[in-house]
Specification:
CATH architecture: Up-down Bundle
Largest sheet: none
Strand content: under 5%
CATH topology: Amino acid/polyamine transporter I
CATH superfamily: Amino acid/polyamine transporter I
Structural class: mainly alpha
Amino acid sequence: MQNNNNNKVVENNTDKLNWNVILGAAFLMATSAIGPGFLTQSTVFTGQLGASFGFVILISIILDIGAQLNIWRIIIVAKKRGQDIANMVLPGLGYFVALLVVMGGLAFNIGNIAGAGLGLNVLFNIDPKTGAAISAVVAIGIFLIKEAGKAMDKFAQTMGFIMIILTIYVVAISNPPVGTAVAKSFMPDTIDMMSIVTLVGGTVGGYITFAGGHRLLDAGVKGEKDIPKMTKSCMSGIGIASIMRVFLFLATLGVVSRGLTLDPANPPASVFKLAAGNAGYKMFGMVMWSAAITSVIGAAYTSVSFIKTFSNKLERNEKKLIIAFIIISTIVFVFIGKPIKTLILVGALNGLILPITLGTMLIAAYRKNIVGNYKHPTWMTIFGVLVVVIMSYLGVSTLIKQIPKLFI
């Protein structure tokens, strides 16, 4: 009887540990996606498209699933990180992908740090640069903790819940036309393809696609036996990011449907302020800081995970590299500001990272030296190829449009 009780305790502890890992990876991916750009995109596109933005969200979620499920599954089955798989598919490709991811992660982390500074500016009326420096100290503190992985998971979960709860409150206050939103999500008045590629790129572009998969590997989730855990974590992450997107959409729709105009200088802040007054503005500060600080952590962790396997020395100094990544991002913002042209170029390149990495993973899924005797589902391959084709076309189109801006 005693042994049975002990076994149940062990099983319960194991289940709890597994769920913490699954949820931790899910929130790391979701909160990495939910950054300052995410907040701005969601409100701006809702202001432009109205209830028809629901259709854009629906299509982007479908494309997100096609990209994420394929990439996470192949990483877990191969028991290797994205860059190592890419190098096995084509020698040197992993280094190229790592370069793109790190460049993108660093550039966007400057924006994330800026967003964190803005959040503290709204909350406490301090200078955004001072707020950015304080935020950097908080992010670095997470990685100085002995069990940094667990601390990162718990922090991402806490901040994620805070963002969602505050945004739900603003949705309730703004009283959006939910029926119209649902109807237009399936029968939109207009279809804007560029908003779709922007949303997909912002949710699963660059380092974000790999954030959860690499976190699961670090937590020991690997091999075909763990595919169910991976699927649960992946779908949870997509669900969390999608829920936040939907609530932001509804909150903004509630404001614009009353004929109120968003402030073009700061659209997401104006949504919260117009809906709930000064209290709403303070809520925006908390949401912005939560979104930005978790994106800072996610970008730093995942970007370094793309280079740490290239040598034992890099792997031994992973924490130092992550801290250096955060410090460099902060220094650039505090002393230079947001380098607009760099962000434009890297943003355009970011649109190309997804088709390159997803395409590479799909090839890897059929290489026995990478996945052994594993059989990748045909429907997932078709789904993935469709995402590669769509994002390649739209990514190249975006890059062509953005390059001339560098010389203006």
